[in-house]
Design a protein that fits this description.
The protein is α/β, with parallel strands linked by helices and 228 residues long. It contains nine helices and eight strands. The chain is 36% helix and 19% strand.
Length: 228
Amino acid sequence: MALILPSLLAGDFARLGESLEAVQALGVPAVHIDVTDGHFRPQISAGQPVIRSIRRATQLELEIHLLIERPERYIEDFVKVGADSVAFHIEATNDPTLAISSARKLGARVGLALSAATPVETCFEVLEGIDFVLLDAGRETLKPRSVSRVAALARERKSRRLSFAIEMEGDYEAAETEQLFPAGADILVVGSAIFDKKECGESMRALVRTLSGNASAAAAQETKFRVQ
């Protein structure tokens, strides 16, 4: 599997509906939405009301990335307002097993997220119970360490015959996928490069359309990608 998911909140936050139309036109099956609480990460972003509104506006799957402290308190809330997948940070909870079981009971896909500074080995003990691992590189551009982290996780998956997907979130350009996908990444979560009106944005959107199998349909709606 090779897939690129747009990080929706990297678009114009004041025109979220237009950003949503743009990524829908790309043919992707899902969108990624970061939720921050001002504590685990200093920013504050979308909460449950925004996710509920997005759920009403699209049939795309919603992958919610919880960058919040003690995420087990809110997993049920976000699933109820429309999350199909929930990723929580292993650094933000003392009980990852509880967080995993909370999502499972509600029928949501569950992922473990790791910040850029966290060794991938930190999550090895709970890999059996999850659907995906999200390696969060934040706004860093691609670095050799990012590739090695993906490769290490892919080796662990293969050696234990597990089936979780490996996601990498960062501010990547289309050319950088040539390193991440061969290293073992299945899904790249990309933000500003999707909405960039310059050449790197055109290249990334073309790659997204190709991987999504929707090149012709999305090309006909290219003007929708040009968020003013």
